[in-house]
């Protein structure tokens, strides 16, 4: 266990096959909506909340490793949550994701 592992709790959210390549799903975890994307051969999780206007990001299109806010076109990096274009300037929270015993798990801060 690393220091990072001690700072998060792994939450079992679904079967590993629940998010097929090119798709995404939104899960409510500890009162937060977290979108898990299967893009470019990997799983990524970000809070499903645009930092510009507080609306859902998961209804927006995905291009490569970027999700585009459906309301005003801000782009966010799926890997880091970083805001890439205006009108958003603040990042969204990103979360680690892993497959554990054929289950999709998301790491949330303690």
Tally the beta strands: 10
Q: Based on helices, strands and strand pairing, what is the structural class?
A: mainly beta
Major sheet: 4 strands, antiparallel
Rg, Å, rounded: 13 Å
Order of helices and strands: HEEEEEEEEEE
Helix count from the secondary structure assignment: 1
Q: What's the average pLDDT?
A: 94
Q: Largest sheet, order of strands side by side? A: 2-3-4-8
Q: What name is given to the CATH topology?
A: Rieske Iron-sulfur Protein
- The coarse overall form would be globular
Q: In percent, how helical is the residue content?
A: under 10%
Tell me the name of the CATH homologous superfamily.
Rieske [2Fe-2S] iron-sulphur domain
Oligomeric state, counting identical vs distinct chains:
single chain
**How much of the sequence is in beta strands?**
35-45%
Please render the helix and strand layout as text.
Elements: H1 3-6, E1 8-15, E2 24-29, E3 32-39, E4 42-47, E5 62-63, E6 66-68, E7 75-77, E8 94-95, E9 97-100, E10 103-109
Antiparallel strand pairs: 1-10, 2-3, 3-4, 4-8, 5-6, 6-7, 9-10
Describe the 3D structure:
This protein is mostly beta strands and 110 residues long. The protein has a single domain, classed as 3-layer Sandwich (Rieske Iron-sulfur Protein). Helix content is 4%, strand content 45%. It contains one helix and ten strands, in the order H-E-E-E-E-E-E-E-E-E-E. The chain has one helix at residues 3-6; strands at residues 8-15, 24-29, 32-39, 42-47, 62-63, 66-68, 75-77, 94-95, 97-100, 103-109. The mean pLDDT is 94.
């Amino acid at each position: 266990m690393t220091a990072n592992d001690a700072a998060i709790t792994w939450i079992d959210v679904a079967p590993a096959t629940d998010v097929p390549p090119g798709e995404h799903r939104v899960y409510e975890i500890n009162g937060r909506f977290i979108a898990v994307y299967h893009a470019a051969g990997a799983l990524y999780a970000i809070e499903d909340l645009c930092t510009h206007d507080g609306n859902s990001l998961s209804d927006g299109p995905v291009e490569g490793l970027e999700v585009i806010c459906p309301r005003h076109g801000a782009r966010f990096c799926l890997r880091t949550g970083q805001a890439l274009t205006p009108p958003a300037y603040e990042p969204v929270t990103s979360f680690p994701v892993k497959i554990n015993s054929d289950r999709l798990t998301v790491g949330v801060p303690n």
